[in-house]
Specification:
The structure holds four protein chains of four kinds. By secondary structure, chain B is an all-beta fold. In chain B, 0% of the residues lie in helices and 50% in strands. Chain B has a single domain, classed as Immunoglobulin-like (Sandwich). Chain B is built from no helices and seven strands. By secondary structure, chain C is mainly alpha-helical. The radius of gyration of chain C is 22 Å and the shape is globular. Chain D is mostly helical. Chain D folds into two domains: 76 residues, no CATH class; 110 residues, Cytochrome c-like domain (Cytochrome Bc1 Complex, Chain D, domain 2), CATH 1.10.760.10. In chain D, helix 1 packs antiparallel against helix 4 and helix 8 packs across helix 9. The chains are: A mainly beta, B mainly beta, C mainly alpha, D mainly alpha. Strand 6 of chain A pairs antiparallel with strand 4 of chain B, so a sheet runs across the interface. Chain C: Heterodimer of SoxA and SoxX. Chain C: This is L-cysteine S-thiosulfotransferase subunit SoxA. Chain C: Its EC number is 2.8.5.2. Chain C: One of its GO terms (biological process) is sulfur oxidation.
């Protein structure tokens, strides 16, 4: 199952989804969440492969997709990033770090009033392009990117 | 069972501002123990959901490049003060955690 | 290192007059060296772009959610729970200076003098004292591994974080009118000036003047209110390097490490004296709560 | 570290000769007793580092401003301890000097004893223009040789200043790198080259 293609959340209550999944025997007993982790996308070793694995094979740059990240990170272990999509009907956002061993960092589906807006913190091994991809309900993909410099740590603080 | 999260939710105009702090090592599987030189196995949150007022509003999948002790922020329209916010996560080792807050 | 012992021991040394009258060696400094170097290099800005960017995003992170809050929550739980061999809570037994169980505003009014202990104590030291004296924990256990590393966080660190968070937005007000506190402050001022070790460093070597840097790291002048505030604010702090919660006690030890000094004992008079000196110099400045550190 | 007995004793003699001038305040006396109790050995940072040597004791007791006559004698005493390379050559390889200047390792309780000790130079000084991450505790040394030349006297000055900064300014903030055994004579002459060699980027 592909997270960016998924629309299971639309209009369905969580308990409903869970109940349906349980009834259908889809859940292993230990699984709390009625979801599958997109192994292929998270284990892809470069951004194009990871983007393909989430279904975003072709994307268009968009100024309505805002990626806010520092020009230079104080510490690569904790890089604060937020992504806001002003593109109408955005249903999902995914974040990639080109130079990380596994570029796909996270993917979010929004439903039931959640705005296409997420703040998160990334681990970056080195200076890299950070990339956001947004998906709209009609299946289009848009991107925005920014380079974040990561410098070697020092003493202090 | 995982350590408690800290969930805060506050109305800001027409949306609820939701902040989530999770307590998790988020081991990448790329680090080596400096003493034994053995690779430390990956342990990381793979999925989490956010529910407001009984409805799932955010469903997320995460990899190893999320910072240790993850912090997430979301905005949810249509929520109101008093709504219950429930956050659930599950990691690759099957550990999980559920915590709640009320929209203020 | 063959160094003479200080104070009394030094004065007692019998000195031979012959050595005392050592002839001064010729030490002519070349004339040119008197000239101050006036290089045409790029000017050194007070704060470079990177520092400003770090500060901006640190503030954003604290606003959006500081992992320190996780430790604060654990500390609150510990504070309120009956624990230890005596099965009492700190909330019902520990006086941080404002009455038993009162945490609001306690952090910004420490270090302070505690008559029951007969000592001036900083917040962390007081909490450890309460854990030992009231709850019955063993002091040696609490001193064995007093600072966080990896996934381990000492209980007192979470407790300090909880107590500190309850002084957020309040002004530092170390009670300097108390002669005990004033005395420890003055002793702390002497510690700050004490030059020793292989590099002849004192705290003041780096932290005694305005506008200095080590590499790109701004060095607060802890003798001023502004500088002391820079040094005191943000502790206890969540350190991004290593993802650990660390206290001001820890920071003092790390300063001594870089000063090439030996290690100060945990919760010792020396560390309390330093914290008294710095915090009192920051009196009047508003505490911003547990911080995020590099 | 090799703070020589001689260096300490000269200073101690001065303290003994004029105890009133160097007497401790009540608070300083308390601080010394307290620190003696509170510091413990960790790694190579032994507990006795908390004790002053004679020169440190005089600087500490006079607010880093000893009387002029004492200053003069102490500086001379420090200068007398400077050791020069056996072959007398004071200019080494500036490239090696740059490496030494970059490193800030050594002497802390987390440093492995026996590993090379760095010069710590960029921690406090601007030196070569390429390194933009430099400290400002000490003066800028950019264009040092260009401004002052590299005569034999100048080489000797720079060498002895790095070997023992206290031989020119008795209570200087700068460590005594040669005196305490942090840097060997051949390393110090690489630093001399970094500052004085016309080919060094410092002088371009």
């Amino acid at each position: 199952m592909n997270i960016l293609r998924r629309t299971v959340l639309k209009g369905a209550s969580a308990s409903g989804v869970l109940a349906a999944a349980l009834t259908a025997g889809l859940l292993k007993p230990t699984q709390v969440l009625a979801m599958e982790w997109n192994k292929a996308a998270f284990e892809a070793k470069d951004t194009p492969a990871a983007m393909k694995a989430v279904g975003a094979a072709s994307t268009a740059e968009s100024k309505d997709l805002k990626l806010n990240a520092p020009d230079i990170a104080e510490n690569g272990a904790v890089v604060p990033v937020d992504v806001t999509s002003n593109i109408p009907n955005t249903i999902s956002i995914a974040v990639f770090i080109d130079k990380n061993p596994y570029p796909l960092s996270a993917a979010f589906n929004f439903a039931n009033g959640a705005m296409a807006d997420v703040a998160l913190r990334l681990k970056m091994g080195q200076t890299s392009i950070v990339r956001a991809v947004a998906k709209t309900s009609d299946g289009k993909y848009f991107t925005a990117s920014k380079e974040v410099k990561v410098t070697a740590g020092g003493c202090g603080g | 069972m995982g350590s408690p999260m800290k969930v805060r939710a506050q109305m800001k105009g027409d949306f609820a501002d939701i902040k989530i702090l999770m307590s998790h090592p988020m081991e990448t599987g790329q680090r080596k123990d400096p003493k034994t030189n053995q690779t430390i196995p990956a342990v990381f949150i793979q999925q989490f959901t956010v529910e407001v007022g009984g409805k799932v509003v955010v469903q997320s999948e995460t990899g190893t490049s999320i910072s240790t002790n993850p912090v997430f922020g979301f905005k949810v329209k249509g929520a109101k003060a008093g709504d219950k916010v429930v956050v659930k996560w599950q990691d690759n080792k099957g550990d999980s955690r559920t915590d709640e807050a009320t929209v203020a | 290192m063959r160094q003479a012992l200080v104070a009394a021991a030094a004065f007692a040394l019998a000195i031979s007059p012959a050595i005392a009258q050592d002839k001064p060696a010729a030490a002519a400094k070349p004339a040119a060296s008197k000239k101050a170097a006036k290089p045409s290099a790029a000017p050194v800005e007070e704060k470079d772009a990177a520092t400003l960017e770090f500060e901006k995003f640190r503030a954003k992170m604290i606003e959006e959610g500081n992992p320190a809050e996780l430790f604060e929550a654990q500390g609150e739980e510990m504070w309120k729970t009956k624990r230890g061999p005596n099965n009492v809570s700190l909330a019902e037994s520990c006086d941080l200076g404002l009455g038993v169980g009162v945490v609001k505003g306690a952090y910004v009014q420490m270090p302070r003098y505690f008559a029951d202990a007969g000592k001036v104590m900083d917040a962390e030291r007081r909490i450890v004292w309460c854990m030992v004296e009231k709850q019955g924990f063993k002091e040696a256990d609490l001193h064995a591994k007093p600072f966080a590393s990896g996934t381990y966080t000492p209980e007192q660190t979470s407790l300090v974080t909880y107590v500190a968070a309850n002084s957020k937005d309040m002004k530092f007000a170390v009670p300097m009118k108390d002669p005990h506190v004033k005395d420890v402050y003055e002793v702390g001022k002497e510690v700050v000036k004490h030059r020793a070790g292989p590099y002849d460093f004192s705290c003041n070597t780096c932290h005694g003047a305005d506008g200095k840097r080590i590499r790109m790291q701004q060095l607060p002048n802890i003798s001023t209110q502004k500088g002391a505030a820079m040094a005191v604010l943000g502790w206890p702090g969540y350190r991004m390097t290593g993802n650990v919660m660390l206290t001001h006690q820890w920071r003092m030890g790390d300063c001594f490490r870089q000063q090439r000094f030996p290690e100060p004992k945990y919760a010792s008079d020396t560390v309390t004296a330093l914290l008294t000196y710095m915090t009192a110099n920051a009196n009047g400045v508003t505490y911003t709560g547990p911080g995020i550190k590099r | 570290m090799k703070t020589t007995a001689r260096n300490s004793l000269v200073a101690m003699a001065m303290i003994a000769a004029a105890p009133a001038a160097f007497s401790d305040s009540d608070h300083r006396a308390k601080a010394l007793v307290m620190m003696k109790q509170d510091f413990v050995t960790k790694g190579q940072a032994t507990a006795d580092r908390i004790f002053e040597d004679g020169l440190q004791a005089i600087c500490n007791r006079t607010g880093n401003q000893p009387p002029a006559d004492i200053t003069k004698r102490l500086e001379a005493d420090q200068m007398a301890g400077v050791k020069y390379p056996a072959d007398g050559k004071l200019m080494g390889d500036w490239k090696e000097g740059e490496k030494i200047a970059q490193s800030g390792r050594g002497f802390t309780w987390t440093d492995e004893p026996g590993l090379p000790v760095g010069g710590n130079c960029y921690n406090c000084h601007q030196i070569a223009p390429k390194e933009t991450s430099f400290g400002t505790v000490g003066p800028s040394l950019f264009h040092f040789g260009k401004l002052r030349g590299n005569t034999a006297d100048m080489q000797k000055y720079v060498y002895s200043k790095i070997y023992n900064a206290k031989s020119y300014n008795v209570c200087s903030e700068m460590p005594r790198f040669g005196h305490v055994g942090a840097l060997r004579p051949e390393q110090i002459r690489h630093l001399v080259a970094l500052l004085l060699d016309p080919e060094s980027p410092v002088n371009k």
